Amino acid sequence: MKYYSGFSLTNESYLFAKYIKDNAYTVCGFSYGAIKAYKHAKEQLASGNRVDTLQLFSPAFFQTKDTKFKRLQMMSYKKNKILYLQNFINSCFNPYENKILEHKSTIIEELEELLSYSWDLSELKELENKGVNIEVYLGQDDAIIDVYGAKDFFLEVSTVTYIKNANHFLQID
Known about the structure:
Layout: E1 2-4, E2 9-10, E3 26-30, H1 32-46, E4 53-57, H2 67-79, H3 81-93, E5 102-103, H4 108-116, H5 121-129, E6 133-139, H6 147-154, E7 159-163
Parallel strand pairs: 1-3, 3-4, 4-6, 6-7
Antiparallel strand pairs: 2-5
Helix pairs in contact: 2-3, 2-4
């Protein structure tokens, strides 16, 4: 299993242990890491390698957000990176208690990629047509991404597990 972490995080996969298919042919990622997992799965298939399952946990989905929202995020990060990241993580866990997380350093280009990334339905369908089982996990009370937009979008190419009362980390308590 290959796992990709979310923005500013490392080793948070334990939060998704009950969902992760732990085998050699699964690629998964959380939030920003979902973008990286998707790209990795495409590269693996292009190289002739096997990928059975792509698991996307709360995939970064901002393509329905306007330019003003994205510009405000970038400005807030530039103004005070530490405060921005603290508020971001708190929002990820909202309304539940924060869990222990390990952080890694970030750069503005990662946030820019996260906010500007646009999922391509035809490319996702290509993965599906190559036999990749795409699974998307979304929390109903996710305060980070456009949950309803993501649900509608990904339903066309994947199994969407919609978790009632769950936050961005898919926690319900």
